[in-house]
User: Which sequence fits this backbone?
């Protein structure tokens, strides 16, 4: 039973990486912007956060550095696609390639570095409950903050005027512009906020989830996070559930190996990506359902005054 508790705990840990990035991309897409550069943003933020912890000794400084790096790269992406009207898909792919190369270059001297002693977190009393305690109440604070962020995002999107404006920009930027809303600035703010969350995801990956730095350590998680937004039909609660689902699939390979199940490691390594393809294929069988939930202006440029 202890092994199952550890599997559940590691699922929450792995799912947090995906959930943070997917929530950031969800904010982008609610404003009508598709950012294919999540993989590159997460890689740059991972090395920024890892290096910040090495030099400062503080995990929270590392998280701040990761969010800052993510927000900066997202701001550059936003300026290109929102003000200069470059193609969103091509620019996002370029950002992803840039992030992979730059992070590899910047991280050369950090490959052998080790982080300071890791702090342990546990709720008093609750953390000592057999099975439940290790599974639920000994997680890093970021895990709980991610769950709170989902609740906060739901409230923001569907219970506040600012959230309504953001969704209206994603549905019909022309109508929002006609009503006097600064569409471009709103989209840029959404892109920067989304980039900061992707940055936090990358920093969490390098500081808590691994914790180390190696080239290409994001290993496709940015693409899975991008797929999660479609899987969740652009709903924050479904993003969280989907992230835990894919996190569980990822951790299952290690659980099976630990229990002595004779399955080729190559097959286990491809499980998360196979699951992504299967889920997207199943969702694509009902295109009407996607159209109903997808922001109408997603991926489309906006030209004020036209």
Assistant:
């Amino acid at each position: 039973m202890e092994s199952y508790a550890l599997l559940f705990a590691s699922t929450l840990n792995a799912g947090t990486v995906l959930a943070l990035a997917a929530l950031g991309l969800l904010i982008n897409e609610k404003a009508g912007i598709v950012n294919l550069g999540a993989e590159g943003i997460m890689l740059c933020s991972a090395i920024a956060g890892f290096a910040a912890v090495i030099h400062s000794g503080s995990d929270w400084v590392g998280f701040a550095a990761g969010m800052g790096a993510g927000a900066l790269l997202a701001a550059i992406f936003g300026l290109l696609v929102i003000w200069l009207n470059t193609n969103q898909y091509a620019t996002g792919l370029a950002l992803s390639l840039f992030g992979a190369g730059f992070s590899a270059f910047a991280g050369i001297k950090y490959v052998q570095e080790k982080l300071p002693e890791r702090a342990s977190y546990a709720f008093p009393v609750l953390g000592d409950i057999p099975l439940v305690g290790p599974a639920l109440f000994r997680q890093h604070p970021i895990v709980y903050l991610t769950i709170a962020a989902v609740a906060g995002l739901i409230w923001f999107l569907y219970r506040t005027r600012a959230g309504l404006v953001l969704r209206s920009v994603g549905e019909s930027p022309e109508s929002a512009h006609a009503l006097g809303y600064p569409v471009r600035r709103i989209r840029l703010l959404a892109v920067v906020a989304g980039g900061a969350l992707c940055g936090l995801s990358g920093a969490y990956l390098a500081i808590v989830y691994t914790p180390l730095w190696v080239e290409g350590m994001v290993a496709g998680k940015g693409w899975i996070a991008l797929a999660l937004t479609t899987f969740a039909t652009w709903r924050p609660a479904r993003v969280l559930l989907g992230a835990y689902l894919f996190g569980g699939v990822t951790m299952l390979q290690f659980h099976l190996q630990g229990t002595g199940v004779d399955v080729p490691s190559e097959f286990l390594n491809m499980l998360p990506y196979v699951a992504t393809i299967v889920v997207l294929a199943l969702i694509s069988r009902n295109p009407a359902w996607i159209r109903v939930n997808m922001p109408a202006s997603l991926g489309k440029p906006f030209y004020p005054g036209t």
DSSP finds 13 helices and no strands in the chain. The chain has one domain: 2-293. The CA atoms of residues 22 and 129 lie 32 Å apart. The radius of gyration is 20 Å.
